[in-house]
Structures are given as structure tokens and as C-alpha cells.
Inverse folding.
């Protein structure tokens, strides 16, 4: 209850929704929007950020999926003679 | 464990639907550069095509077309393609996953090479996601006892 009230109080300081001058949209986003096509020749900014600027992150996302699949195999598969 | 229930309507529908889904998956993967889509989504659609095959026909039919060992190989192959692309960039003298140096082996300019580098890693993501989704589904549907499910 107290935490909830504190969180609601905290939202008072948030930037307004869709505010173009909020910190999240003035840091690196304009650079991506302006430079993506000339730097990577990819029209889709989401793909460019996912695969190029944040390629290392996406690689380990793939590794996480891979690890999850291997763990499911280890947990669920049983050999013929148990 | 998984019985073969013959149903002409469902089987004919799936016979038309499965190739369509596979082609659509490749479209989503290939058009990830210019429209919403990419490796993760394409891989999921491709896995869904095989899951529909398991539902419409039976487990043996699907496993006859996609071997268990091939599935594990594909899981590893996708991550290998992704990391291999990164290492290829490293070997060509740039940073890890800096695709512009791929223009040394692909006959394009460095900016277009980034485009093809992204296509390569998306291919890796697609293969891994497809194989892992299918592998998890098959493990759950047979409770891990693949051999027993095949015998029945």
C-alpha cells in the first residue's frame, strides 16, 4: 500500500506522454533515425538497431533461446533404460 | 501415445497450408530489412508449420520429415552462423560483428555489406528459433520419450 502510494507519487515527475524533449528520445534515438539509412542501407530502423548497433545483445538473445532448448532437452528427455 | 486420427478435411487443408506457411516464413525473414519481421518471427512461423504437421498427421510423419538429430544440429548451426559471422568480421580485421569489413569477401561497398551481414545473422536466428521451438514442442508432446512414441 505504502509502496503503491510512493510509486504513484513518483509518476508525477515523469515526462508527459509523447513529449519530444524527454530524456529517452533525445539521447541516441535521433542519431539512429537520421543515420540508419546512410550507415547501414537498411530502411527498417528496428532491424538496424537489433542486428547492427545492438548485435552483441541479439547474439546472446539467440544464445539464451539455445540454452533454454538444451535445458528442456536435458530435463524432459529420458534414456531408454532409466 | 500420439494416435493417428485420419481426417480428410484437416489433412487436405494442412497440405495446402504448410507450404504456404513455410514460404511466408521465408518472406518474413527476407523482408525483415524493409518491413516488420526478422529471424525470430520467421523462425516461429516455420516451427508452427511443422507443429501443424504434427497435429494434422501424426508424430511419425513429422519426424520422418525432420529427423531428431537434424533438429539438434540445426539448433547449434544457427548460433554457429551468428557467432561465425562475428568471428569472420574479427578475422577480416575489424571489431566483433562490425559487418562493414565483410565487403572484402562480398563484392559490395562497405555500407551494403552491413545489409548482407545482417541478413546472415538473421538467418542464424531463424534457424535456431525454428529448431528450438520444434524441439521443445516435441519434447513436451511426447513427455521426452521419443523412442516409445515412435514404437506405438
Amino acid at each position: 500500500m505504502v509502496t503503491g502510494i510512493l510509486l504513484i507519487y513518483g509518476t508525477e515527475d515523469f515526462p508527459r506522454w509523447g513529449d519530444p524533449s524527454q530524456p529517452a528520445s533525445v539521447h541516441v534515438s535521433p542519431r539512429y533515425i537520421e543515420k540508419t539509412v546512410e550507415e547501414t542501407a537498411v530502411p527498417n530502423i528496428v532491424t538496424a538497431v537489433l542486428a547492427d548497433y545492438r548485435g552483441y545483445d541479439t547474439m546472446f538473445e539467440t544464445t539464451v533461446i539455445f540454452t533454454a532448448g538444451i535445458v528442456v532437452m536435458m530435463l524432459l528427455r529420458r534414456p531408454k533404460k532409466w | 501415445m500420439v494416435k493417428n486420427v485420419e481426417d480428410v478435411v484437416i489433412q487436405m487443408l494442412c497440405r495446402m497450408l504448410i507450404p504456404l506457411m513455410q514460404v511466408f516464413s521465408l518472406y518474413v525473414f527476407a523482408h525483415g530489412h524493409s518491413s516488420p519481421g526478422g529471424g525470430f518471427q520467421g523462425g516461429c512461423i516455420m516451427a508452427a508449420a511443422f507443429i501443424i504437421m504434427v497435429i494434422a498427421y501424426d508424430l511419425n510423419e513429422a519426424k520422418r520429415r525432420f529427423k531428431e538429430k537434424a533438429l539438434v544440429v540445426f539448433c547449434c548451426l544457427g548460433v554457429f552462423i551468428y557467432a561465425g559471422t562475428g568471428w569472420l568480421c574479427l578475422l577480416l580485421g575489424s571489431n566483433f560483428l562490425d559487418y562493414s569489413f565483410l565487403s572484402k569477401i562480398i563484392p559490395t561497398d562497405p555500407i551494403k555489406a552491413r545489409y548482407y551481414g545482417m541478413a546472415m545473422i538473421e538467418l542464424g536466428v531463424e534457424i535456431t528459433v525454428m529448431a528450438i521451438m520444434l524441439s521443445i514442442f516435441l519434447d513436451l508432446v511426447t513427455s521426452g520419450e521419443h523412442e516409445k512414441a515412435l514404437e506405438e
